[in-house]
Design brief:
This protein is of the alpha+beta class. It folds into two domains: about 120 residues, 3-Layer(aba) Sandwich (Creatine Amidinohydrolase, Chain A, domain 1); about 220 residues, Creatinase/methionine aminopeptidase superfamily (Creatine Amidinohydrolase, Alpha-Beta Complex), CATH 3.90.230. Helices cover about 35% and strands about 25% of the residues. Helix 4 crosses helix 5, helix 7 packs across helix 8 and helix 9 packs antiparallel against helix 10.
Length: about 350
């Protein structure tokens, strides 16, 4: 094998001589390169060729699996164009979501006029949905580190600490526990701000008798984890407890629905159905979950009407939420892996409503 992972791209079926992979995570997935500037040319005839710039000469020699490496002095795209010319490839596919209009223009200008450039959807994304054992091991570790960082973060929760400070504490603990970095900007929201599903931590201070929503994830060996927990500072009132139980019930029903052969849309429908029963479905305005791996959000999307059929080896989140303006929001999110018979919840953190 000349790549770290199969690309899943059938060049013959696509009637292409070569495909240019430019998405940084796709390049990493296929070649093992962890740098920020690399491209990969998959060829119908001949081995794949990897391109990077001189800053990455040593790193590429250590990491990259296609042995053919091209390190042009100028822009990467000039090296790519030369190799395309050299291999006499005429029909070239490229990832349309990863090549900018500007780069496309440069490539077109550098290539022979007889060359045909064909925009393609992200074909590697399909392959990346199914994780192998090594990838699942990294996701498991990522999830465990994330949950441990959450536990440590809990100890810092008290009236007077700001959302931003708490987010900083959590992210510091992630790194101390062995994560490379947060998988996204940690969300810490308190009080009425919990009704903002993607709240940014502010200088607002936590006060007694309010909801706190924490959504956090880490990267470990390049792989993401994702978890949301909603807590209450002080004893939660009955209304909050009822709302929490409804979200938990829908989240558990979602987890129960995850198994091979079921569509992503079906899982979303189950989750929404439970919230509807509690009269809360209109307060749930995002999708039920998403795949995760080298990116925090990747295929499949567990949303309304999504027809992707779940398969063993997919790592996805289940994260229903209810957001009521003025009152607050509750979300519960776990990372799960689809198994042969159902799914395994990787997140070990309790889902009982935590009162601090
Ligand atoms: Zn999340
Ligand atoms: Zn998520």
């Amino acid at each position: 094998m000349s790549l770290r992972h199969e690309s899943g791209i059938d060049l013959a079926a696509l009637e292409l001589d070569a495909v240019l992979i430019a998405g940084v995570e796709n390049v990493r997935y296929l070649s093992g390169f962890t740098g920020s500037n690399g491209m990969l040319l998959l060829r119908r005839e001949g081995n794949p060729i990897f391109f990077t710039d001189p800053r990455y000469t040593i790193q590429a020699a250590q990491e990259v699996l296609p042995r053919t490496r091209v390190i042009p002095r100028g822009a990467l795209i000039t090296g790519v164009a030369s190799e395309i010319k050299r291999s006499r490839a005429r029909r070239i596919g490229f990832e349309k979501s990863h090549i900018s209009f500007d780069l496309y223009g440069q490539l077109k200008q550098l290539l022979d006029t007889r060359c045909e450039l064909t925009p393609l959807p992200d074909l590697v994304a399909r392959q990346r949905m199914i994780k192998d054992e090594r990838e699942l091991a990294a996701i498991r570790e990522s999830v465990l580190i994330n949950s441990q960082a959450f536990e440590r973060g809990l100890k810092k929760i008290r009236p007077g600490i700001s959302e931003s400070e708490l987010a900083g504490e959590i992210e510091y603990q992630m790194r101390r526990l062995g994560a490379e970095k947060p998988a996204f900007e940690t969300i810490v929201a308190c009080g009425a701000r919990t009704a903002l599903p993607h709240a940014r931590p502010t200088r607002q201070k936590l006060t007694a008798n309010q909801l706190i929503l924490i959504d956090m994830g880490t990267f470990r060996d390049g792989y993401a984890s994702d978890m949301t927990r909603t807590l209450h500072l002080g004893a939660p009132p009955a209304k909050i407890r009822r709302m929490y139980q409804a979200v938990l019930e829908s989240q558990l029903a979602g987890i129960d629905a995850v198994r091979p052969g079921v569509t992503a849309g079906k899982v979303d429908r189950v989750v929404r159905g439970v919230l509807k029963k509690h009269g809360l479905d209109r307060y749930f305005m995002h999708s039920t979950g998403h795949g995760l791996g080298l990116e925090i959000h990747e295929s499949p999307r567990l949303g309304k009407g999504d027809r992707t059929v779940l398969e063993a080896g997919m790592a996805v989140t289940i994260e229903p939420g209810v957001y009521i303006e003025g009152a607050g929001g509750i979300r519960i999110e776990d990372t799960v892996v689809v198994t042969q018979s159902g799914c395994e919840v990787l997140t070990p953190t309790t889902k009982e409503l935590i009162a601090i």
